[in-house]
Amino acid sequence: MQARIRVVVAKPGLDGHDRGVKVVARALRDAGMEVVYTGLHQTPEQIVQAAIQEDAAAIGLSILSGAHMTLFARVIELLREQGAADIVVFGGGIIPEADIPELEKMGVARIFTPGATTQEIVEWVRAAVPASV
Fold it and tell me: Coiled-coil ranges per the record (predicted)?
């Protein structure tokens, strides 16, 4: 059996706009990855629990609400607390360029801003995220 990359994709917080995250989830799936989309209005606790239960190698967060600093920080904190800091965290959405260096310092591997192509996201995930057996 060939190893595949397993990714949990989530919409944390109160943001209800999910078209973009569904497009990304489909692109990752079409590229041969296993994708679990947790749906709208997920808490960081729910997202981390899903990633651990699904034995995911990565979590992709889509945030358009402006709460990216808080939500990314909480997901990374919970991963560390659960001994799962090896899960790669990346994301995208409406995130100001000025916030990206701080997100990277806290442990976010990559932020995709509006205009990123699905091919760019797929290629980055393939290069940055280990496959599961």
Answer: none
